[in-house]
Amino acid sequence: HGLFLFCAGIYLLWNEKANDKAKLGEMAAGLHSGRYMIVMMGFFAVYAGFIYNDMFSLGLNLFGSRWVFDGQYNGEVEEGAVAVQTAEYASAESVYPFGLDPMWHVTSNELLFFN
């Protein structure tokens, strides 16, 4: 939703000079006076979405996960299975490049972790 807010703010900035000269109603004048705040709110909403690997409440898998379940690739994951790291602990490959590892979206403590 932040992308829509960001685009609306960019539209307000794009038409800034025309809106300065026009006679605006109360609502439009309020939007015009808050145009910079609207752009920044949209930008940081998109940024937060990337940090949490989340877009429209759907988890993103941008860089793959650093964890796998036994039997994950052949569809035989049993309930209560434990995830294991794909790389050695503290190596360059074990660090997720940006944001949160998408494996957090399937954990039982997902809500506690994200909040």
From TrEMBL:
Family the UniProt entry places it in: Belongs to the V-ATPase 116 kDa subunit family.
Entry keyword annotation includes Chaperone: no
Organism domain of life: Eukaryota
GO molecular function, one term: proton-transporting ATPase activity, rotational mechanism
This protein's name: V-type proton ATPase subunit a
Record bears the keyword NAD: no
TM helices/strands, residue ranges: 34-52
